[in-house]
UniProtKB/TrEMBL annotation:
Residue ranges of coiled coil: 354-381
GO biological process, one term: cilium movement involved in cell motility
Ranges where the record places region Disordered: 1-35
Alphabetical keyword list: Cell projection, Cilium, Coiled coil, Cytoplasm, Cytoskeleton, Flagellum
Biased composition (Polar residues): 20-29
Protein name: Tektin
Gene name in the database record: Tekt1
Species, as recorded: Climacteris rufus (rufous treecreeper)
Cellular compartment(s): Cytoplasm, Cytoskeleton, Cilium axoneme; Cytoplasm, Cytoskeleton, Flagellum axoneme
Length: 401
């Protein structure tokens, strides 16, 4: 009990002072460190704020620059798309011209071939490889060559239209992506620190997907533009080629068609002239035949008329040859009778002209038949050339394609 009532150990006053000084020193040191930390924190906060603002400002500028780049390329792509669409529409009109031209060549070719076929029906000497046939064959060859050329050009045109549409598709896809990217960057440009709905997206920093470099991005659109320009230039050159081909082929067709028509007109004139001459000869032959028939009739009558006198003279001679003895005298009567018989016989013998006349008549008949056959040949040729062919060719009219 006495131990419990004893005073505890007391500190010396100097220790008390020392302890107080240490508390003040420690507190002041802590306060100083805290003030330094606070000052450093404010400095750091200010630096971070400025850095953040600067970085965000730089990002905003870059977003704006990016938007301008996208707008520039979008305008370029829009311009090239408009050009290639317009060029494709023009090329489609040229394709239609080619198709119409190709269709227009079919009827003239069929007519030329029909004319050649019809002219095979000519007969005799008129089945000749004349100028008309030569020009018809040339016309058929020209038309077949034109059809082949137009067909090949139409294939080229279809292929160029396909390429134009391919370029158009690439431009449209690029424009669609540009529009989407611009819409996204417009949204990004509109965002501020106070915009509602902004969220943390820690995974957004991960580079996932097929990211490309800015150079590749530019190169992609630039290639689409260059391809569109190339196809547009090819299309322009093809349209110029088509225009030249259509103009030249139409001229060639018209020229050859006229050459055939001229040859037909000349040939018809020649055949008509020949037919007219044959008809003139036929008329002469028929006149001569009539004359020869009259001549034969006269010869026959003359022979008939001499039968009586010759019989009388010969009967008299026969009777006087039976005079007896010395009466069988070569008197003037006998001499005259001899002369009469000789004369009549000689005249009858001269009637061999009848046989010759009949031979000539047969020759005239054969000539008449030959001329009539030849005239029929000419009429057949005229029917083929003038009626079948020339009238059929009147429907051929070659317009500018």
């Amino acid at each position: 009990m006495a131990r419990l009532l004893q005073d505890p150990s007391k500190f010396h006053p100097s220790e008390w002072d020392t302890a107080n000084r240490m508390q003040r020193a420690s507190t002041e040191s802590q306060k100083s460190r805290s003030e330094c930390m606070t000052a450093e924190s404010w400095r750091l906060l200010d630096e971070i704020e400025k850095t953040t603002q600067k970085t965000q400002s730089d990002v905003n500028k870059k977003i704006e620059q990016r938007r301008e780049e996208i707008k520039f390329w979008k305008q370029e792509l829009d311009s090239k798309l408009e050009q290639i669409v317009h060029e494709t529409e023009l090329l489609l009109t040229f394709k239609n011209r080619l198709e119409r031209a190709l269709e227009s060549c079919k009827e003239p070719l069929v007519i030329a071939q029909k004319c050649l076929l019809y002219r095979q029906r000519r007969v005799g000497i008129d089945l000749v490889h004349d100028e008309v046939e030569q020009e018809l064959v040339k016309e058929a060859e020209v038309l077949q060559g034109i059809i082949a050329l137009l067909g090949h050009t139409l294939e080229q045109t279809n292929e160029q239209i396909r390429r134009n549409r391919s370029s158009k598709y690439n431009l449209e896809m690029d424009l669609k992506d540009k529009f989407t990217a611009l819409t996204i960057d417009d949204y990004c440009a509109s965002l501020t620190n106070d915009t509602p709905g902004i969220i943390y997206a820690d995974n957004a920093r991960k580079l996932e997907g097929n990211f490309v470099s800015p150079e590749n991005w530019i190169d992609f659109s630039n290639k689409n533009v260059e391809k569109a320009d190339k196809q547009r230039n090819n299309s322009l050159a093809l349209r110029a080629l088509i225009d030249g081909i259509l103009s030249q082929t139409a001229n060639n067709m018209r020229k050859q068609c006229e050459m055939v028509n001229i040859a037909f007109r000349n040939r018809v004139k020649e055949v008509k002239d020949a037919k007219h001459k044959l008809e003139t000869l036929l008329a002469m032959v028929m006149d001569e035949t009539a004359s020869q028939e009259k001549n034969i009739a006269a010869l026959k009558k003359a022979i008939t008329d001499k039968e009586g006198p010759v019989k009388v003279a010969q009967t008299r001679l026969e009777a006087r040859n039976h005079r007896p003895n010395v009466e069988l005298c070569y008197d003037t009567v006998h001499c005259s009778l001899m002369s009469e018989v000789q004369e009549i016989t000689k005249n009858i013998q001269r009637q061999d002209a009848l046989a010759q006349a009949e031979t000539e008549l047969k020759g005239l008949s054969r000539r008449q038949l030959s001329l009539e056959e030849e005239i029929n040949v000419k009429e057949n040729t005229l029917y083929i050339d003038e009626v079948l062919c020339m009238q059929m060719r009147e429907s051929v009219y070659i317009n500018n394609f």
